Amino acid sequence: MQDTFILAKNDLDRVLDELNQHGFSLLDHLHPQALMNQLVQECTTHLQDFREAAIQNGVVSNIRSDHILWIDDALPIAQKHLQLLERLSHEINRAFYTGIQNIEAHFACYRAGEFYALHRDNPQQKNNRVISTVYYLHPEWKEHWGGQLRLQDKNGQWHVIHPEPNRLVLFQSDLLHEVLLSHQQRLSITAWLRTDDKIWAS
Ligand code: OGA
Ligand code: MN
């Protein structure tokens, strides 16, 4: 578990400071290349199991067109990513007394022409999501492929974040954001750091 968490103290301090000041932060080159390659592998070998994200409990929405696969123990490489997020959660709890105790996560695949319209992951504090994280794991990304994450920070300022491979974005789950139309297959792990008393799913 420890071997996958090699976040330098100055990176951690910067992330905590940016979360505090702006409500979001980026961490580039998150995992060693070998682990990222394994994540790409695990994700792509399961693509046929992905389901339409727009259909939840039989209800269809038209705000998103991506496909997802919820992460459980049957996906051991993805669990390594969750272990890193778990450690990050402990640091976030230490800094902000957030009480995060649980992580909920899925792989997501946006094919060419897919998007996720403006939304919040925790509208009106309706669920227990505190921080949303998105990790991009396609092997490469070119600017003209689109698929940017557009996010309004806690001060009302908008930011356009490119889905660079091996980049982790963290943001408050109550912030407004969207995924712009992607022109290429765009792969990611979305994970929410939550306050439910499940005490770590992994
Ligand atoms: C989400 C989401 C952003 C992204 O899954 O809720 O907003 O960049 N994802 O994939
Ligand atoms: Mn979202």
TrEMBL record:
PROSITE patterns: FE2OG_OXY (PS51471). Keywords: Dioxygenase, Iron, Metal-binding, Oxidoreductase, Vitamin C. GO terms for molecular function: ferrous iron binding; L-ascorbic acid binding; peptidyl-proline dioxygenase activity. InterPro entries: HIF_prolyl_hydroxylases, Oxoglu/Fe-dep_dioxygenase_dom, Pro_4_hyd_alph, Pro_4_hyd_alph_FE2OG_OXY. Its cofactor is L-ascorbate. Residues 101-195 form the Fe2OG dioxygenase domain. GO terms for biological process: cellular response to hypoxia. This is Fe2OG dioxygenase domain-containing protein.
